[in-house]
Specification:
This protein is mostly beta strands. Helices cover about 10% and strands about 30% of the residues. It has a single domain, classed as N-terminal domain of TfIIb (Single Sheet). The protein contains 1 helix and 5 strands, in the order αβββββ. A hairpin with a 2-residue loop joins strand 3 and strand 4.
Amino acid sequence: MSALDPWLLERLVCPMTRTPLRYDEAAQELISDAAGLAYPIRDGVPVMLVEEARRLDETAA
């Protein structure tokens, strides 16, 4: 598991809301608090597709 490049992280935004993302290194996800979505990071590559994102409320039960 490798860390995401800080330069890249500063430039990525949520494709739905255009707001900054928060990096969850343990889960290997980029979190959009504004959209309530978590975008996966696969093999070190952020998957910035809304269709591939996990809804944050899925884990709240």
